[in-house]
Amino acid sequence: MIKNTLLLFSALITLSAHAQQRLVVADKVTHEPIAQASIYTKENGVFHSAISNDQGVAVIDFHFTRLTFSHLNYERRVVNSLSDTIFLSPRHRETAEVIVRNIEPKWIREKLRKVVKTKWKVYFSHPHVLRYDYQTQSIDRHSYYAYQSKGLMKMKSFDHDHYSLSQTEGHIVSVDSTKLTDVANLRRMLYEDFVDELDGSFIHAHRFGVNGEFESDNKNEVELVFRSKNHEDDRGRIVIDTARCVIRSAYRITGTESNKRERMSRVLLAFANAISGYRIDKWNRTYHVSYAELPDGTMYPSDVSYKCYIEGYDREDDPTVKEYEQQSGGGFPNMEATLHLSAPSTLPDSIAWVTLPGSWYLRLSSAKERQQEISLSHLPADFDIFKEEDD
Length: 391
Description:
single chain, alpha+beta, 4-stranded antiparallel beta sheet, 9 helices, 23% helix, globular
């Protein structure tokens, strides 16, 4: 208790040593606030960061010369001074919010059921080998980590239930000398693929509507918007080719309750809480995927982006400490990752494959599984220390 009090006292001294500035991070086009934007710098060898909250508000309580603002869905911006609002330019076209009503066209569910019925023939028929480029970034209060991996990917198929990779290039940038390769988000993007998870239960649990403002060169393509019937924190949109009954792209946002329900065992979470006091207060997940087509007609996820923000605690923290962490954006992992897949022109004669096990967020693991995780954390990679000019 004394140690915690001293740590809190030290944190409050540090906080008061710098003039605090509250600001809002917002979309340059819509002026809507941007939640979970990463704000960071490295000055005199010390890394500092903050994370915007659900209202886009962040508190900067540290000195900086150059400050970087980044978010998976926006262009990175570097500033030398702060204003009340920092605007970020969106990377992608944003669809206006469409109200999903109880009455929907009957053909929507018929087409989606056809996708479910034929998806294994269209998306997962053969274990194709593709080139991959994976990039991931994680930021918390005191650290920065980025990892890029390139190589070959053996895709999951109807008779092959795992993805495998053969890395040819690996590069890590971090604030310290820890040399670990992180493929957790790669596994999540692959094993939590939208089409793979699309089934009758998903169709039954959501309402669908048509976005009449969507435009495409393909007259058969329609954009559907969806929202969970029972949970407000689950919504998104799908572009479907109604002639071929294939999904061309999907975008989904899920919040705390939906993620706990779909991505984690409630029994395991309750067990972890009983053992160590671990709990999840906030869990936001954003996922986008676009599908491309190989010459033989097989569809595959060509571009995937993933963002995950989790506020988790291992014990009942002192309320004052928790409030400080929330105000300063500290202590919580803010993860972003992208994956690009493409058909290779040629393949080497011999390929050494590493199996990628399924994705997870919290689980009990066997000794064999732990060893597998350790092996994936030690893939060959060059290493650089994060520097001021890396911003």
